[in-house]
Every structure is written in structure tokens, then in C-alpha cells.
Design goal:
It is built from one helix and five strands; from the N terminus they run βββββα. Strands 1, 2, 3, 4 and 5 form a five-stranded antiparallel β-sheet that branches. With 63 residues, it is an alpha+beta fold. This is DUF397 domain-containing protein.
């Protein structure tokens, strides 16, 4: 597995905690805290788009 640099866990009230990470190859990772060995992997741009969409309310129907 790539050498991933993980951010501190993000924990919403009453929800699972997740972590966002990146590697030197331009990949981005998202994983449930404690399960970093099985992350969802995509490009940094895809992760950036996901975060922007969540912040703008485009994913509210998923919550």
C-alpha cells in the first residue's frame, strides 16, 4: 500500500469518524477511523469535488 499521510479523524456527533489522507502520487483516500487499511481511493481532484459538493448541500439527500 502507498505511504498515506492521514489527517486527524473527523467525527460528527453520533456518527462514525472518518479520515482523509493523501499520498505523493496524487491519490486521495477516505477511510473510517481505525480501518485505514481499507480506504476508498481516488484522485485528489475527485476528493476536492466531493468535499465541495457536500459543503454546497448537493449530498444532503444521502444523509
Amino acid at each position: 500500500m502507498a505511504d498515506i499521510t492521514w489527517e486527524d479523524p473527523f467525527c460528527a456527533e453520533g456518527n462514525n469518524c472518518f479520515r482523509i489522507g493523501t499520498d505523493s502520487n496524487g491519490n486521495a483516500y477516505i477511510a473510517i477511523a481505525g480501518q485505514e487499511d481499507t480506504p476508498l481511493t481516488d484522485t485528489r481532484e475527485a476528493l476536492r469535488t466531493l468535499i465541495r459538493d457536500i459543503k454546497s448541500g448537493k449530498a444532503d439527500h444521502l444523509l
